[in-house]
Design brief:
0% strand, mainly alpha
Length: 179
């Protein structure tokens, strides 16, 4: 249904290019819209070909979180081991992004998926891996990156998780052992 609206938006943009002052810029924007218009149905088709789509996306996000944390922690550990100190909020700790704030929020947005896997995983090895991933993510947000917004976001996510688990506990859907 949203594809129809996007197609209507494309038609509107196509008609409005004749009235634009900067025609080169309007055609550049139009090519972006055409790219999105052709990419969305292809992605929609390909995503629906995957069995276990929820598991696929959760695993993909955890994989990306692992890479992001390693890209942030590696230069930090190198500085600590080689120079016996580290540079406060160094740009070298920005990971795969160009900015430490973006790296911190990238880690922060992926951490709830690690919480989810830690809670719902049946295998102990996955629980331990995700728990270590959460600990290194928290360490990188608090110590390596030291961004106030990400720290506040992490505290907010933690409070939401505690509230959710408490709510489930009082509704007797979980036991104290799994809390």
């Amino acid at each position: 249904f949203s594809f129809v609206f996007f197609l209507l938006f494309f038609c509107w943009a196509l008609m409005s290019t004749s009235f634009s002052i900067n025609k080169a810029e309007s055609f550049r924007a139009l090519t972006l819209i055409v790219t999105y218009l052709t990419t969305i149905p292809i992605l929609y088709f390909l995503i629906h070909q995957i069995d276990g789509i929820k598991r696929f996306f959760v695993n993909m996000i955890i994989f990306l979180l692992t890479i992001e944390i390693l890209a942030v922690i590696s230069p930090y550990l190198f500085d600590v081991i080689v120079y016996n100190t580290y540079t406060y909020r160094s740009q070298a700790y920005s990971g795969l992004t160009g900015n430490i704030n973006i790296a911190a929020f990238s880690i922060l947005l992926k951490l709830p998926f690690a919480f989810y896997e830690t809670i719902n995983s049946k295998k102990t090895a996955f629980k331990v891996f995700n728990f270590l991933l959460i600990l290194t993510g928290i360490f990188s947000i608090f110590t390596v990156l030291s961004t106030r917004g990400a720290i506040l976001g992490l505290l907010f996510i933690s409070l939401l998780l505690i509230f959710y688990k408490t709510l489930l506990f009082y509704r007797k859907k979980i036991t104290f052992k799994s809390f």
